[in-house]
Amino acid sequence: MSLSLRSFHLFFIAASVLLAAWVGVWGVQSWQATRSGGDLAVGLLFVALGLVLLVYGLRVRKKLRELAPDDED
Amino acid sequence: MEIPYTVEARPDTGVFNAKLGVWLFLASEVMLFGALFSSYVLLRTGAPAGTWHHGREFLNVPLATLNTIILIASSVTMVMSWASLKLNDFKKYRIYMGLTLLAGVGFLVVKGFEYGHKFEIGLLPKTNTFLAIYFTLTGLHGLHVIGGMILNGYFLGPGSKMFKTQPERFTNRVEVAGLYWHFVDLVWIFLFPTLYLL
């Protein structure tokens, strides 16, 4: 992994996807325990955010490589 | 005298000097935030059973969710501003950098609203250990956001003149600012679940 902004951005997006998945699980578990609709809504929002970021990450990975071909993942 | 290795990579490090400099700075930042995170973990695990106050008792999760989305979006606009410079599109650069700055303002407004509400109802750092570490961590993070905004504001305003004379050097400067901004965003990615959800 190089020290470029491209690599750091992809790492950040991957970390955000992991966070989104974790918050999704947290939201469902919290809803099961407390029946709090707000927690479930936050969890579902993060699941949607994670999916959007996943698609974005895969697309931007290729596009940024064209801009900085010397950078490694 | 010309400053060396502002554009081309230095042979021994493989990167231009400012990039090496910012990564060394970020390493020191990891130690700073790492020490505070460790303090939080030790205070929490060391608290007598039943005495630790959880963030969810005091904090507003929907507002923090909004701030998380704002910061993730700002990292996207930041990398787009750098990509625009790589494509020699200065107009787009200004738009994306402006959006990044706006996202920073949005984050601070939401945070200010959160802080203001807590102060109004008497929730202060002295109230309990959780709130003390909450205000320390988020306050320090907020200062880093302000620092990043000053840097980005400079590159959007007076500092952008360099693009006309030394476009590659300016692009590298924006990349370095982007690395710092991503670090600040990454810290929030850890702060949000740690303080608000766990």
DSSP helix fraction of chain A: over 70%
How many structurally independent domains of chain B? Answer: 1
Class from helix and strand fractions of chain B = mainly alpha
**How many DSSP E strands of chain A?**
0
Report the total helices of chain A.
Answer: 2
For the record, the count of structural domains of chain A works out to: 1
N to C succession of SSEs of chain B: HHHHHH
Provide structural commentary.
The complex is a heterodimer of chains A (73) and B (198). Chain A is mostly helical and 73 residues long. Chain A has helices at residues 5-34, 37-67. Chain A has one domain. In chain A, α1 runs antiparallel to α2. Chain B is mainly α. Chain B has one domain: Four Helix Bundle (Hemerythrin (Met), subunit A). In chain B, α1 (17-46) runs antiparallel to α4 (129-156), α2 runs antiparallel to α3 (90-120) and α3 (90-120) runs antiparallel to α4 (129-156). The model of chain B has no long low-confidence stretch (mean pLDDT 94). The chains are: A mainly alpha (73), B mainly alpha (198).
Brief rundown of the structure:
With 73 residues, chain A is an all-alpha fold. Chain A has helices at 5-34, 37-67.
How is the secondary structure organized here?
The complex is a heterodimer of chains A (73) and B (198).
Chain A: H1 5-34, H2 37-67
Chain B: H1 17-46, H2 61-86, H3 90-120, H4 129-156, H5 162-165, H6 167-197
Keywords:
heterodimer, A: 73 residues, mainly alpha, B: mainly alpha, Four Helix Bundle (Hemerythrin (Met), subunit A), 6 helices
